[in-house]
């Protein structure tokens, strides 16, 4: 970075990367621990006597979070476009901390009746809002804070942090299960991961308070002040918004299939023990996390479309054979290799999907343009993936789900084949962001 760098740009590369992406870790940690610890706290908020009813009630509250994500995408995407990326990143992490703390201190049914369940519901509403805004705020910040030739690499850390959050949540669950009795976990132990989540979010808040606004955003601070982040302005870019939904469709279904649903699939269908299935998922996710920066860096060299097309073709052609083979996996090594093969294919989407979406929109509507269409697609396809899979299984046609995943990938593949390349897209007005463009030189870089 030269001495002429504006003060609005992050001072150091990794500070921007860390501050911009770390919130995703806390988001996905919270998302994971709610789902995984529900069996322990379900009885605390609803009348005793029917364990299934208790789990259904907590699952219903969990589902509310998915419905709130588009609302959060709209509200916080608009906020990020009007008030700035740093302000939005700080607000999302504040909502994160509040939601985790509410769950940690929520009173039980025995203490206050259904008021405890109401507190749980409020916490999930806040969490849904936060998740809906965090993705776009993080994607736009990482993309805008990067030098043109390194946007794919930097933005890939969004999924590095998301996966790390799941791994930390899974690791804490394993630790508590081995150090606390089952009765203790049901009594008070389930509160521990939410306390950890609240503290983690508070630390992220402090880190993000020290971030600087992106140069791209501050350059256009006076542009279209009343139109920034509005639905009316987004509708002027409805083609790009539709593109975000379509290119997300196949990727989000595949991602949820091989991450959140994988452990249940290996246990319920392949017949592996829950401990072995969890270990397969942990190892596969860890290796998947390490792949993201490599693929993101590759996209900076060869473009975004080749990776997306590779994912689309691979997911369309390989989902059925991989899922079929996984259903008969009878060893840890075999299940791990198959799971990793699937996640290598998915990496073609996850490593660059955030930067591609951000590169489609102009600055004054970029955050909303990423947030709202993505949240809608994620709620419709990603959030329902596990339910669709279990619906097929319950109907005795589990292989139908494999074809469903393949079909979603095929739809997205058509988009990948016809969309424009975004790698060299200009992010700010009057500036060519192509690093090879003659006479163009950025004074700051990540």
Mind explaining what this structure looks like?
The protein is an all-alpha fold. The protein has helices at 13-45, 51-83, 85-105, 109-112, 115-144, 151-155, 157-179, 182-187, 192-209, 215-219, 231-235, 238-258, 262-268, 274-302, 304-327, 332-350, 353-360, 366-382, 385-394, 399-418. The protein is globular and about 60 Å long. Mean pLDDT is 83; it is low at 1-12 and 430-446.
Taken as a percent bin, the fraction of beta residues is under 5%
Return the structural class. mainly alpha
Q: Which H/E pattern describes the elements?
A: HHHHHHHHHHHHHHHHHHHH
Number of helices: 20
Shape: globular
Please give the share of residues in helix: over 70%
DSSP summary, beta strand count: 0
Poorly predicted runs of 5 or more residues:
1-12, 430-446
**Measured on Cα atoms, how large is the radius of gyration?**
22 Å
Tell me which oligomeric state these chains represent.
single chain
Spatial gap, N to C terminus: 9 Å
The residue-averaged pLDDT reads: 83
Largest sheet: none
Protein name: MHS family alpha-ketoglutarate permease-like MFS transporter
Subcellular location: Cell membrane
Pfam family, one: MFS_1
Transmembrane segments: 28-46, 58-76, 88-106, 112-136, 157-176, 188-207, 241-258, 278-295, 307-326, 332-356, 368-389, 401-419
């Amino acid at each position: 970075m030269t001495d002429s760098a504006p003060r609005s740009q992050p001072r150091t590369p990794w500070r921007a990367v860390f501050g911009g992406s770390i919130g995703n870790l806390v988001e996905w940690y919270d998302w994971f621990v709610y789902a995984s610890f529900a069996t322990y706290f379900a009885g605390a908020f609803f009348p005793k006597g029917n364990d299934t009813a208790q789990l259904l009630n907590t699952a219903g509250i969990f589902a509310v979070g998915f419905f709130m994500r588009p609302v959060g995408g709209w509200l916080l995407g608009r906020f990020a476009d009007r008030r700035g990326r740093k302000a939005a990143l700080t607000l999302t992490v504040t909502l994160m901390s509040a939601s985790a703390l509410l769950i940690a201190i929520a009173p039980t049914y025995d203490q206050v009746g259904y008021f405890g369940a109401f507190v749980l519901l409020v916490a999930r509403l806040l969490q849904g809002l936060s998740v809906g805004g965090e993705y776009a705020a993080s994607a736009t910040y990482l993309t805008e804070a990067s030098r043109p030739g390194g946007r794919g690499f930097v933005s890939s850390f969004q999924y590095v942090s998301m996966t790390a959050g799941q791994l930390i949540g899974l690791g804490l669950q394993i630790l508590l299960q081995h150090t606390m009795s089952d009765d203790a976990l049901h009594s008070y132990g389930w509160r521990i991961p939410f306390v950890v989540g609240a503290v983690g979010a508070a630390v992220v808040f402090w880190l993000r308070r020290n971030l600087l606004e992106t140069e791209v955003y501050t350059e256009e601070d006076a542009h279209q002040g009343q139109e920034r982040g509005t639905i009316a302005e987004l509708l002027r870019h409805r083609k790009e918004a539709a593109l975000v939904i379509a290119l997300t469709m196949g990727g989000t279904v595949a991602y949820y299939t091989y991450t959140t649903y994988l452990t249940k699939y290996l246990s319920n269908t392949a017949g592996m023990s829950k401990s072995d299935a969890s270990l397969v998922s942990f190892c596969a996710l860890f290796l998947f996390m390490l792949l993201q920066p490599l693929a993101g860096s590759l996209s900076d060299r060869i473009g975004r479309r080749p990776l997306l097309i590779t994912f689309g073709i691979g997911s369309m052609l390989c989902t059925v054979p991989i899922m079929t083979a996984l259903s008969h996996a009878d060893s840890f090594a075999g299940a791990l290799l198959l799971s990793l093969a699937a996640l290598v294919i998915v990496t073609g989407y996850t490593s660059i999907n955030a930067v591609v979406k951000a590169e489609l929109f102009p600055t004054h509507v970029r955050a909303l343009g990423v947030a709202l269409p993505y949240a809608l697609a994620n709620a419709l396809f990603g959030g329902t993936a596990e339910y669709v899979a279990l619906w097929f299984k319950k109907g005795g046609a589990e292989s139908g789900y494999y074809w469903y995943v393949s079909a979603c990938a095929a739809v997205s593949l058509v988009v990948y084949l016809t969309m424009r390349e975004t790698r060299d897209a200009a992010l700010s007005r009057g500036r060519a962001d192509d690093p090879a463009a003659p006479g163009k030189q950025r004074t700051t870089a990540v």
